[in-house]
Amino acid sequence: MALSVDEQIKLDLEQGPNEIPQTTSSGKIIVIATIHVTPGNEARMIELLRQNQASSLSDKEPNTLTYRVTRVLKSDGTPTSSFLLIEEYNGPVAGFKEHIAQAPTFAMLKAYKEEGFLAKDIDIEFCDEIPPRL
């Protein structure tokens, strides 16, 4: 029997991304996510991202240090249909997994599946900060 959209998202969130590092040398993890939406769906994407950002920067996610939402621009300054998220967490487990368990993240993932406005799969990179030498 096929899973419902809600059941599939819950399963995906429980399993989490396979490539997420379990530890980093800095103790923090930086996530860079690139999202491409089909033209005409930018306003919907911005709405979902703002809801997710509000939750990320609230007391609900004490291990979220940074959650920046940006939109990629053309050379003439015109916005594209691509978005870049820059996220920083107090560790992969405490921070990132806490973030993806929040209701706005679930709502965003559900919208991706039900509304079908992603132009392609989301590209997620996990990074560790290289601190400056003083």
Q: What is the oligomer described by this structure? A: single chain
Portion of residues in beta strands equals 25-35%
Q: What's the architecture in CATH terms? A: 2-Layer Sandwich
Unreliable sequence segments: none
Order of helices and strands: HEHEEHHE
Class computed from helices, strands and strand pairing: alpha+beta
Proportion in helices: 25-40%
Profile the largest sheet.
Answer: 4 strands, antiparallel
Count up the domains: 1
Please tell me how large the radius of gyration is. 16 Å
Strand order of the largest sheet: 2-3-1-4
CATH class: Alpha Beta
Distance between the termini: 59 Å
State the shape: globular
Mean pLDDT rating: 88
At CATH level 3, the topology is Alpha-Beta Plaits
Secondary structure layout plus pairing:
Blueprint: H1 5-15, E1 29-36, H2 42-56, E2 64-73, E3 79-89, H3 92-100, H4 103-115, E4 123-127
Helix pairs in contact: 1-4, 2-4
Could you describe the 3D structure shown?
The chain has helices at 5-15, 42-56, 92-100, 103-115; strands spanning 29-36, 64-73, 79-89, 123-127. It is of the alpha+beta class and 134 residues long. It has a single domain, classed as 2-Layer Sandwich (Alpha-Beta Plaits), CATH 3.30.70.100. A four-stranded antiparallel sheet has the order 2-3-1-4. Helix 1 (5-15) crosses helix 4 (103-115) and helix 2 (42-56) runs antiparallel to helix 4.
